[in-house]
Amino acid sequence: MFFFKQKKVLFFFLLILISIQSLSQNTPSDSIQFWKNVRFGGGIGLSFGDGFFSGTLAPSAIYEFNNQFALGLGLNGTYNSRKDFYKSTIFGGSVLGLFNPIRGIQLSVEFEELNVSRKWEENLGIADENYWYPALFMGAGYRTQNITFGIRYDVLYDKDKSIYADPWAPFVRVYF
Questions:
Q1: Closest to 42 measured CA to CA, from 74, 90, 70, 71
Q2: Given CA atoms 119, 120, 125, 131 in this order, what sign does their dihedral have?
Q3: Phi, psi of 66, deg, nearest 5
Q4: What is the pLDDT of residue 27?
Q5: pLDDT (tens digit, 9 = 90+) per residue, 129-172?
Q6: How far apart are CA 84 and CA 8, in angstroms?
Q7: pLDDT per residue over 39-98, tens digit each?
Q8: Fewest CB within a 10 Å sphere: which of 4, 82, 105, 173?
Q9: Structural element, H or E, at residue 13
Q10: In 10 A of CB 45, how many CB atoms?
Q11: Which positions ≥6 away from 131 have C-beta within 8 Å?
Q12: Which stretches within 25-131 are classed as H helix?
């Protein structure tokens, strides 16, 4: 597991280094063209009821190489609590790849790495948890202009560690 984490850190470091290097060689007009291809979006979630509260903020940005391919980065922050039971915070990031093979269809792959911190109420006798959880989503959706509706599947799903109730999850993506 330690070796796997070192490879991920090295991969992200190299990706950032290559991105910075390529951007630093751009002329001012190239830089303007770059930002014309960047789209911003993300997700906001809020749910509550009977002593339960959950809030999520997940901004993201993609770079559209052309009408078919896009690559992006995202952040995720979530807070959950249930009165007299537990509190949790979840922070992390993701790398997203999008492919539009034909008009209206979007395929996606997204790697997400989240730090999960759960603090249980003392009277329950459950040990607090703090761990990293990876997810690799494969998805398909219907795209119309800047909105995509679809479903994705976590191929790394672990029912004991995942923050998601099921490996299948519907999604809505909006990029401006």
A1: 74
A2: negative
A3: -160, -165
A4: 61
A5: 999 999 999 999 999 988 999 999 999 999 988 888 899 999 89
A6: 37
A7: 999 888 888 888 888 899 999 999 999 999 999 999 999 999 988 888 999 999 999 999
A8: 4
A9: helix 2-24
A10: 10
A11: 115, 116, 161
A12: 28-36
Structure tokens at 24: 């630093």
d(CA 100, CA 172): 16
pLDDT confidence band for 18 (50 / 70 / 90): low
Bridge-based pairing state of the strands 147-154 and 168-174: antiparallel
CA distances from 105 to 37, 94, 143, 147 (A): 20, 22, 6, 11
CA–CA–CA angle 57, 131, 152 (5° rounding):
50
What is the C-alpha end-to-end distance of the chain, expressed in Å?
38
Torsion of CA 152, 158, 164, 166, to 10 degrees: 60
The count of other CB atoms within 10 Å of the CB of residue 97 is 14
Distance CA 38, CA 1 (A): 34
Instruction: Tell me the backbone φ, ψ of residue 72, rounded to 5 degrees.
Output: -150, 175
CA pair distance 34, 62, nearest whole angstrom: 11
User: Is residue 3 pLDDT above 50, yes or no?
Assistant: no
